[in-house]
């Protein structure tokens, strides 16, 4: 039985595939992000672009990152374009999850096709979608 977060994740992934199918490959990350935002809105999902993520160390703010997209205040989406995604991108997403306190993240690669890796703040069995 699917959980609500699983259903939300599937909806977000569907939006990724729709944006890629319509847009095609070879565009800059920002173009893909903007297309994804249109699809998320069409799907009735609340999403924020370039949301600041504060990083703290022992109670002190030591930095800030920008999450590409946060959906329904539950899923951090990190978008990448180019030839491939690497382990460093997965680590980046997990760090965003730790900093936000959110449990679920999607590493979305807009290449020749869409590749999505689901990441968790805590260890879970991961599902990859191609």
Care to describe what's here?
- This protein has 130 residues and is of the alpha+beta class.
- It has one domain (4-129): Trna Endonuclease, Chain: A, domain 1 (3-Layer(aba) Sandwich), CATH 3.40.1350.
- 37% of the residues lie in helices and 35% in strands.
- The protein has three helices and six strands.
- It has helices at 4-23, 29-42, 87-100; strands at 47-57, 60-71, 75-81, 104-110, 114-120, 128-129.
- β2 (60-71) and β3 form a beta hairpin.
- α1 packs across α2 (29-42).
- The longest helix has 20 residues, at 4-23.
Give descriptors for this structure.
130 residues; six-stranded mixed beta sheet; 37% helix; alpha+beta; Trna Endonuclease, Chain: A, domain 1; 3 helices; single chain
At the third CATH level, what is the topology name?
Trna Endonuclease, Chain: A, domain 1
- Largest sheet: number of strands, sense, barrel closure: 6 strands, mixed
Please give the domain count.
1
Average pLDDT, rounded to a whole number, is 92
Low-pLDDT ranges? none
Determine the structural class based on helices, strands and strand pairing. Answer: alpha+beta
Q: Taking Cα atoms only, what radius of gyration do you get, to the nearest Å?
A: 14 Å
How many angstroms does the end-to-end distance come to? 22 Å
**Helicity range:** 25-40%
Per DSSP E runs of 2 or more residues, the count of β-strands stands at: 6
* Structural shape: globular
Work out the helix count: 3
Strand content: 35-45%
What is the CATH first-level class name?
Alpha Beta
Strand order of the largest sheet: 1-2-3-4-5-6
The CATH architecture designation is 3-Layer(aba) Sandwich
What is the string of helix and strand elements?
A: HHEEEHEEE
